[in-house]
Amino acid sequence: MSHNDWEEILRSAHAEPIDPAHYTAVRARVMADIERSRAPWRRLAWISGVGTMAAAILFAVGLRRPEVPRPAPVVIAIPPAPPAPVVRPRPMEIAHAQPAPRPHREPLTIKFQTSDPNIIIYWIAD
User: Residue 120 in contact with residue 111, Cβ under 8 Å?
Assistant: First the structure.
C-alpha cells in the first residue's frame, strides 16, 4: 500500500458520523472529573470554616471567667518577742601558742657533678 492509500483510509474513517450517545458519555466523564477536582476545595472550605468557628467559640468562652469571691482577710495577733537573755561579761584570756620543738637535724647536702670536672654544684636543704 502506498502513502496515498493510507491517507484515503484514514479520511474515510474520520468522515463517519459519531453517535450522539458517545458525545453524552464523554461529556458525563468530563463533568465528573471537574466535579471531583472541585470537591477537595469545598471540603477544605467547610473544615476551615467549622474550625474557625470552634476556635472563636472557645476564645469567647475563655474570656468569660467566673467571678471567684475573694477570701475574707485574716487578722493574726503576733505575740511580743521574749526578753533578750542577760549575758555577764567575762574577762578574755589570751592564749600564747608555742611552736612545737623540732629535733635538731643536720642539713641535707646534695652534690651534683657535671661533665666539666671544674664545675660542681652543691645543694644544701634544711
Answer: yes
Question: Does residue 71 form part of some domain?
Answer: no
Residue 84's φ and ψ, nearest 5 degrees, are -70, 145
One-letter-per-residue 3-state SS of 12-52: HHHCCCCCHHHHHHHHHHHHHHHHHHHHHHHHHHHHHHHHH
- Give the pLDDT confidence of 89-126 residue by residue, as tens digits: 888 888 888 888 888 888 888 898 889 989 888 888 87
> Sign of dihedral through CA atoms 64, 68, 69, 73?
negative
Q: Which cell numbers hold the place of 123?
A: 645543694
Is the residue at 12 inside a domain? yes
Contact in structure between 111 and 121 (CB atoms under 8 Å): yes
Grid cell listed for 27: 461529556
* Residue 25: predicted pLDDT: 92
Write out the residue range of the structural domain in which residue 49 sits.
Answer: 3-63
Q: Could you tell me the three cell numbers for 78?
A: 503576733
Number of structural domains in the chain: 1
